[in-house]
Task: structure prediction
Amino acid sequence: MSVATASLVLNGKGSISTQVRQRVLASASDLGYLKNIHAATTASRKSRHVAVLVDESYEKAFEWHLVRSILIPLEATITAQMYYPILIPVTRLQTAQQIMEKVVMSGAGALFSIHFGDRDLFTLLEDRGIPVVILNHNRAAQQFYSVTDDFIYGTFKATCHMLARGHRRILFVDYDRPDLQGVVFDRKAGFEKAVAELDEPLEQWSMTVPDIESNDDIERVARSIAEICGHGPLGATVHDDYLAAKLYAVLQKLGVSIPEECSIVSPGDTMDYSLPFVPPITTYRTDFELMGTLAGQMLLRRVAGESRTVESLKVQHVLKERGSVRDLTGGNHHARGCY
Result:
C-alpha cells in the first residue's frame, strides 16, 4: 500500500475502497496515530515564502509562456498579502523525497505546483504541514486543492467550432504524453463528445505523433494529413497549439494551404503569438490569468485556516480567432454545429 493511499484515508480524501480504508484505519489505531487537524496551516504560519514548482524538463520548455501567464497574477495576489514566491525547478526524474527536501530547504511554508503532478510528493508536503495548491494538472485534482483547465470542454468547444464552420471531414491529432495520460484521454473524449452531439455522418480520422520532438514523426503525420487533404477540405482538431504549430509549418512545406485545404484549431494557448515565427492558430484559450488569481486566493484561504474541505476549480476557455479555420457555411455558423 502506498504512502499516498494511507494519507488519503487518514485525511478523509479520495475514492478508496471500504476494505482498504478499514485496513489503514486499523493499522493507524494499532500504532496510536492521532491526526493533527491543524497541520495544514502550521508551517505556513511560520513563513511568508511560498514555493512554486516549475518543470524544467527540456520537452517542457515550450510551456514557459503558459507558466508565465499564470505566475504574474498569482504573484500579484499573494504579494498583496505579504507572501513571496520562490521558484523551484524540478523534473520528472527526481523522486518525491528529493523534491520535498528542496522545498524544506527553501524555507517555504506553502506551495504551488504548476503543470507538475506527483501525488506522493503532495501527500508528504501536506503531512508535513505545508499546504499545496495544484495548477493545471488534473490527475491529482480530486485529492488536493487545485485550479485546473477543463481539458474535455476545451477540446469539445474547439471541435464544435470546426463543425459549426461546416467541416464534415475532420481529424483529431494528439501526441504521446507519458506524464499526462489523463490530459491525452480527456482531449480525445472532448473530440468524441462533439462528434456524438452533432449526430450527423462524418468522415473522421485520428492520428498520434509518438514523439513530438522528433521531426521524422511530425513529418510522417503531416504527410498523412496532406494525403487526406488531397481529397477535399479537412478540419483538424490538434491536441495543443505547440503540436499544431509544428504541423502547420511542415504542411506548408508540403504545399498544403492553410486554411483553404486544411483548417486547424486547438484547445489551449501555450505559444507566444507575439513572436513573428509562431503561426496564427485559432485556439480556445484557457484563461491562465484567472487561474493564477484563483489559485493565489485559494492558498491565502488555506494559510488563514479558512478552508477545511478540498476545493477543485476549473477554468473555462475563450475563443481566439486567428484565421486558421476555413468557413464552409457562407456565414451560417451555428446552423449545424454542436453548441
